[in-house]
Amino acid sequence: MIKMIGVEDLDELLLRNDIFIVDLRDADAFRKYHLKQAKNYPYENMDLWEKELLSHPKLLLYCERGSESLMAARRLNRRTNEVYTLIGGVKAVYDLEKRNSIDSRSWNR
Q1: Along the 109 residues of the chain, how does pLDDT read in single tens digits?
Q2: What is the pTM of this model?
Q3: What fold is seen in the domain 2-108?
Q4: CB of 60 within 8 A of CB of 22?
Q5: Burial level of 97, CB count in 10 A (0-12/13-18/19+)?
Q6: Helix (H) or strand (E) holding 102
Q7: What gap in Å lies between CA 95 and CA 53, rounded to an integer?
């Protein structure tokens, strides 16, 4: 099942220890800014890593704007129990941080 979450629900989801977090952006973007627990699996290489993620029953996927994570979620959803995607991706996090309305301590810069 795919569950779409907004940035306002992200901190609550990150408190769980049963979710494998996947950053779908390229390696350069990942190095600049990512969730602390995230692993980098660039979307353009999904054919190479897709099977590896199937061992994780709960996934949180995010990308730059949310579209690639949704496409990846649809593909992985057929074989995993729960797949979460971040609506608006990292851009939504940036926008909320500008308004100082979220805690960004869970992000590496």
Answers
A1: 899 999 888 888 888 889 999 999 999 999 998 888 899 999 999 999 998 888 888 999 999 999 999 999 998 887 667 899 999 998 888 777 776 555 555 666 5
A2: 0.86
A3: Oxidized Rhodanese; domain 1 (3.40.250)
A4: yes
A5: middle
A6: none
A7: 29
